Model the fold of this input.
Amino acid sequence: MCPAEDPKARFLASYGALHPHPERVRDPLFQGSDFFDPRDLVQVRYEALRRHLVDGQAVAAVARAFGMSRQMFYLLARAFREEGLLGLLPRKRGPKGARKGTDEILAYVAGCRTGSPERSTRELVDDVRREFGVRLHLRTLERGLALRGKKRRARVAR
Done:
């Protein structure tokens, strides 16, 4: 059955829990079982941790059987210890927020825009460099201001 036709695969994918490489899971528990599904990323991760923590199998053997690196196993173990089952859900990779276009800088630029609406983005970027010592790309500043405006409108709408 094609993943688009499979309701379980669609459900797992909608929550970001569809294992991208189920073929790497070689553990016997996941071979030919209706309950243990190698496509279920959270179930695979949980069983890998259980295999080590409860059954006492070596991390290297568990990682190999479940198709993950030892480093990933240790990251999952820490996430599970700190967050429980939610720690086993996949996370968005990459930066989680603005690194340079901070709230402080955006508030400063918004204030400058209010006082002098005719100022160009290039001039505002130069002001930020002088005031904060931070080099921003024009587009970074524009995106930050647009996002900040959306957040403010959403707060007011409530």
Q: What stands out?
A: The two ends are 45 Å apart (CA to CA). Residues 85 and 129 are 44 Å apart (CA to CA).
